[in-house]
Write a structure and sequence with these properties.
This protein has 7 helices and no strands. It has about 180 residues and is an all-alpha fold. The longest helix has about 45 residues.
């Protein structure tokens, strides 16, 4: 697969209408093209990597990674037990797990869409109903950005509460802060 040369890119840019050229400089246009390709290809590349080198999908990988960060005791035997439980839970949503359909759907429709800013593989927000949903989504994005700030601060408060609860649980098993 050959990549366009710098001259070919400039020729494509020169082929744009004058109105489009006024909206973006050549460098802005190249940056947007790169970001668009990255958004399209990286989720696919990550999926292929996980498929080739293990039984994880993105949901099981993220589950295991998140659970690995919850070790609170510092006691090797308890940590080893927790590793086993974390892997058991993560493997259930993996490609060969009991909840594989749930994990695959969460990977494709949840994580991959999140990486693409809510779009599917074709760049649509609503799939078959995209002619109706895409304009609505684009108009609602501005309103959603304001709500995201409030939700983020509320989520931070919940996470802080969960961290302190984790410290109490760790203390019960002889670990915790020393």
């Amino acid at each position: 697969m050959s990549h366009p040369s710098e001259d070919q890119k400039k020729a494509m840019y020169e082929g744009l209408s004058d109105e489009q050229k006024k909206k973006q400089s050549y460098m802005e246009w190249v940056k947007d093209a790169y970001n668009n390709q990255y958004e399209n290809w990286m989720p696919w590349i990550e999926d292929k990597y996980l498929a080739w080198f293990g039984t994880d999908n993105k949901a099981s990988y993220a589950t295991k990674d998140t659970l690995d960060k919850t070790k609170v005791t510092g006691i090797s035997q308890v940590d080893k037990l927790q590793d086993g439980v974390n892997n058991l839970v993560g493997d259930q949503v993996g490609r060969e797990g009991l909840l594989a359909p749930v994990g695959n759907m969460a990977s494709k429709e949840g994580i991959n869409r999140a990486e693409r800013g809510g779009k599917d593989e074709q760049g649509s927000y609503g799939g078959p109903a995209s002619s109706v949903t895409d304009p609505v989504v684009k108009n609602a994005q501005g309103a959603g950005e304001g709500l995201a700030g409030g939700a983020q601060s509320a989520g931070g408060a919940v996470a802080d509460g969960a961290k302190s609860a984790g410290g109490y649980i760790g203390g019960m098993f002889g670990g915790g802060k020393k």
